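Protein fold
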Amino acid sequence: MTWDLDRTFHSSSGAVRWAELGDPDAPPVVLLHGTPFSSYVWRGVARALADRYRVLVWDMPGYGASEQRAGQDVSLAAQAAVFTELLTHWGLAGGERDGAGAAAPSPAPYIVAHDFGGCVALRAHLLHGAAYRALALVDAVALAPWGTPTYRLLGENAAVFEQLPPALHRAMVREYVASASAPGLRPDVLDRLVAPWCGTAGQPAFYRQIAQNDQRFTDEVQGRYGELRLPVLVCWGADDAWIPVAKGHELAALLPGARLRLIEGAGHLVQADAPAELTAALTGFLREQDA
């Protein structure tokens, strides 16, 4: 399935590739990916939602088709700042001007965020004032402690792992990405997810993003989750081996009025493991807010 991000936004952390699907006048939905993934994981869900919504997808700086470079700030703090910039660029940040120069409110978007995209969305809302109409969190990185033993090992020894022979690096990344799925990924999908992390720019970028992301970025906002005053849905793969389902229950309990939906047979990468079930859960949640 082709997936082309045909537009570029020059953010404070580098060039961001993004795309828009659906009717530009429909209610906006923004999809956030996590690590070590890209917007490609959302391709099926995005196309399904585009029948009813204006769907915006993007690759975070350092990921997928977006810019990768030495010295780049790709931390969760930087990604939240970039996301806030993007919302303004898309006309979704509020306070826009109409043709006569008068203030005109822009529509608050629906936000659907996976993995550390959850932290990015929560930081943008709580620290940068980004307004959302509703929020869906899918196997989100949001609560301490987080990071698998493999993730921590790679981050603590990034300079060493950057020196791996390319073939060994590719094999390691391939096994790591594959472990996010409970039933297993199709080879072509796995190839597409691994490809951005290979080559002279991709290999160091893989370890850079892990080294820069530590628990303090969720610690800074975790105590404020009770401040959320918007509809929240928490979706979780029942067989998530990266973030145990107990974290889904814990997160839903901390977010006022949040509902928890478990997706049976799915691991951490729910979009690949159970796309129909996830799309149905998200569509039902969004339509409730439309009513």
Q: What stands out?
A: Residues 95-104 have pLDDT under 50 and may be disordered. The longest strand covers residues 14-21. DSSP finds twelve helices and ten strands in the chain. The radius of gyration is 18 Å.
